[in-house]
Amino acid sequence: MSFSFWAVATLVFGVVAVVVNALKQVLFKDPNRPPVVFHWIPVFGSAASYGMDPYKFFEDNRKKFGDVFTFVMLGRHITVALGPRGNDFVLNAKHSDVSAEEAYAHLTTPVFGKGVIYDCPNARLMEQKKFAKSALTTGAFRSYVPLIVNEVRQYWLKSPQFFGGDSNRASNKTHLMTAMPEMTIFTASRTLQGREVRAKFDESFADLYHDLDRGFTPIHFVFPNIPIPATFNRDKAQRKISDTYMEVIRERRRTGDLSEQDVLNTFLRDAVYKDGVRMSDREIANMMIGILMGGQHTSAATSTWALMHLGADKALRDALYQEQVEVCGPELRELTYDDLQNMPLLNNTIRETLRMHPPLHSLMRFVRHDLTIEGTRYVVPRGHYVLAAPGVPMIDSQYFKEPLKFQPERWLEQKNIIDLAAQDQDYTVVSKGAKSPYLPFGAGRHRCIGEQFAYVQLGTILAMFVREFEWSLPNGRAVPTPDYSSMVTLPAEPSDIVWTRRRVGEKKY
Ligand code: HEM
């Protein structure tokens, strides 16, 4: 049979599939199912419009259908539930009804490794989170701030984008999406995992973590084992990084020195589940990858957005500098954790950044049993997914006046909203905070454990920038629009700032 026969047959088959798919959507609407977003191409569904701009996609369909609707994306049926009630429905659903592990494990297990986070029963994850959380105390944070200060200084001194070894350099241009991920991983590894782990980043770890990153992409969310170099490199890097943590663990066990207040030591000492089973060293090693990756993209994206907004707002930068002077004196003595607690504008700048740019736009769960959506006649069937988009109410004028304006001072009036979300500290109980319109760290059993750490890390880094630099976006450019093509919401390139030193030569590095 000739080539042209197959070409014609394929074309006919394609056209028939498209027509049948379209007719099915128009003619057979099940009143007990949420409305389905119309799509021409079967299986592929609305992948392009959702993937390019999820917030526009949510808003367009909310206008058509209200807060609840289903879309098809690469064979998956995903029911979106918007607004605070939607957040509550998805994030507070019972674990017997929905699961995060069946939504995420295919992406995360090859990156973190076996036995942890989503590669274990949910009850185990809840205990792993408690082990980690028990390390993240105020006492630990007090010890972290000077470590972060030191890491930031060292980074500025070594990085060609900053002083590059010349402590008198007065100005330069910096690509934030290069610099901030590096600063984030150096400061997080030094504080959460200790000196030896941090030292590995000066050797091979940085490249290996890059390889892990390149295997943690939307493509891998859809095709976890797609046979491309990024996938092979991800798997190799995971093994090497996990083995390296194992060496660190063996050495700490050998010397018995568990004195540093890092998360690794807490796991080595205390990680025994309620049923008496101790986490294996391999699981602890993999947990360290999970913890570092959990905070890496989220915090790097947040500091980048914050620096961009500040770069576009000199009055805000000046007010932040003034706050530094008021709390630490005109000589700007070294920052402490307690100083950070006395800097409302700094903390509200982080809060506002997360309101406008929550790093994660979609939180998903796999539906394990048919799930009725309260207050509607809709049932989401087993095998589908549900999706919460906490970022939607965060830019809704119903909850935040002039929501598209970056105004950290709004949080002086909206304190009640923060408090509501902050009530969730026990991940296993039903969350009261899930109904809050402000949930950058999620809610319910899968709520983030890293919120306080993130504030310490971001607060210290931003305060250091405010003290040291004046900066702006090149050529008076506006803050970039969001780019949704990676796992977190980033500013579209170019993410450059141009800076000058505030007081060249006064600070010795
Ligand atoms: C600005 C920084 C951060 C943001 C915006 C953020 C956001 C989130 C969100 C939205 C979730 C919920 C995911 C879901 O429900 O599907 C989450 C969970 C989590 N995050 Fe964070 N995170 C940040 C930093 C961190 C840091 C620094 C760590 C580690 C120290 C961390 C570790 C975790 C862990 C372990 C979970 C729990 C996953 C689960 O239970 O399923 N995060 N984070």
From TrEMBL:
<keyword id="KW-0503">Monooxygenase</keyword>
<comment type="similarity">
    <text>Belongs to the cytochrome P450 family.</text>
</comment>
<comment type="pathway">
    <text>Steroid biosynthesis; zymosterol biosynthesis; zymosterol from lanosterol: step 1/6.</text>
</comment>
<dbReference type="InterPro" id="IPR050529">
    <property type="entry name" value="CYP450_sterol_14alpha_dmase"/>
</dbReference>
<dbReference type="InterPro" id="IPR001128">
    <property type="entry name" value="Cyt_P450"/>
</dbReference>
<protein>
    <recommendedName>
        <fullName>sterol 14alpha-demethylase</fullName>
        <ecNumber>1.14.14.154</ecNumber>
    </recommendedName>
</protein>
<dbReference type="InterPro" id="IPR036396">
    <property type="entry name" value="Cyt_P450_sf"/>
</dbReference>
<keyword id="KW-0349">Heme</keyword>
<feature type="signal peptide">
    <location>
        <begin position="1"/>
        <end position="22"/>
    </location>
</feature>
<keyword id="KW-0479">Metal-binding</keyword>
<keyword id="KW-0408">Iron</keyword>
<dbReference type="InterPro" id="IPR002403">
    <property type="entry name" value="Cyt_P450_E_grp-IV"/>
</dbReference>
<keyword id="KW-0732">Signal</keyword>
<keyword id="KW-0560">Oxidoreductase</keyword>
<dbReference type="Pfam" id="PF00067">
    <property type="entry name" value="p450"/>
</dbReference>
<dbReference type="InterPro" id="IPR017972">
    <property type="entry name" value="Cyt_P450_CS"/>
</dbReference>
